[in-house]
Amino acid sequence: MGLVSLKIGDGTARFKRVTLSSLAMNVLMLFSVLTTNLFALYSFTSSPKNQTLLHHAHKNISLISQQVSLILREIDSSQNKPTQTEKGLLGYETIDLSRPNIANELKLFLQHHKLPLGKDSRTGITEMVASVGHSCEKSMDLLSQYMNYRVSGPCPDDWSLAQKLILRGCEPLPRRRCFAKSIPKVGLYSFPISLWKNVSDKTVNWSGLGCKNLQCLNSKKLSKDCVGCFDLVNGFENPKYVNSRTKNDFVIDDVLALGSGGIRIGFDLGGGSGTFAARMAERNVTVITATLNIDAPFSEFIAARGLFPLYLSLDHRFPFYDNVFDLVHVASALDVGGRSEKLEFLMFDIDRILRPGGLFWLDNFYCTSDEKKGALTRLIERFGFKKLKWVVGDKVNGSGKSEVYLSVVLQKPVRV
């Protein structure tokens, strides 16, 4: 079936292409009308002797009409199914915007918009749907509070609220039409000097944090990977990855020598204040550091060093294409807790973004028990990685207790 064009002035009016379903519907309707009219004509011209036959014929016509009606309803239902399927896939009905006290900006952001040229022939989508995390439905009060602001005005100083939503699985967050709070970046150094110069307290936003300066942060143990990690001169950061304090501490140059085809880009999960990325930058390797601002301004501090922070939780699918990284480095961030399936999902996503021949570096993973170490070992073996380095060693913590740590360097195989 072709398109029918009608020239009107300087424009052209085009009628829609006739579909097979609409054609079938028209044929059935025409058949029904013709049959009914023939039957009426016959009833008026027939003799009384044929009334019995006419009665049976009337029943047959009635059955035909019922069948035609059923077929028409089936065609109409089949036409509506793609729309219902599309709504289900895109999550049209996920978030109930009819609740009271929902911010108008949230309603506007989540409103569906028709595609300007109609249905997309490749995807079958007819509307543009806003990207927002499915779990946001569980935190609608906080989400509405986050979206309650003055359009084109300053955004509320609520990054801690945004992070709370992210940690509850509300990721990605909806976009906003306001200006984020500006922090003058005073005292930034040029690259590569910035890698090992202490950052000024004035370069970060301290709202929502217990500490209000870097000295306070350096006096605390924020995590196993961050003990005084904001002191780049006198703390433990400077010797990291270039000097070994224990057999579990691998030297960067030794690991890089294991990479076949060269190590050029890497991904660091839970990289503290960015020291791993800094050491890699000195060796012309670009590393993205995934982090959140848990009790400290990690993202701003990493950026002040001239490095690339990625504000992302480990529950979010990594926003990278398959097989792109030469190296993935992870330490205590692999300890996701909860059920074993959660760790499996994380490991499979790490494997997805790591190229064949790329290196997976598990750096000083704390094994709280033999059971936990065994479960992690069995999981790693499922991927068929080649073991280049595998060290299990003890470290004495601050209280004098011995703890078991696992450090490994594995190479992703080529799978067919």
TrEMBL record:
Name the chain's protein.
Methyltransferase type 11 domain-containing protein
- Report keywords, A-Z: Glycoprotein, Membrane, Methyltransferase, Signal-anchor, Transferase, Transmembrane, Transmembrane helix
The answer to whether keyword Transmembrane applies is yes
Species classification: Eukaryota, Viridiplantae, Streptophyta, Embryophyta, Tracheophyta
Report how it sits in the membrane: Single-pass membrane protein; Single-pass type II membrane protein
Pfam families associated with the record:
Methyltransf_29 (PF03141)
Q: Where are the transmembrane segments?
A: 23-44
What is the organism field in this record?
Answer: Camellia sinensis var. sinensis
Family matches, as InterPro entries: Prob_Methyltransferase, Put_SAM_MeTrfase, SAM-dependent_MTases_sf
GO molecular function terms noted in the UniProt entry: methyltransferase activity
Q: Which family does it belong to?
A: Belongs to the methyltransferase superfamily.
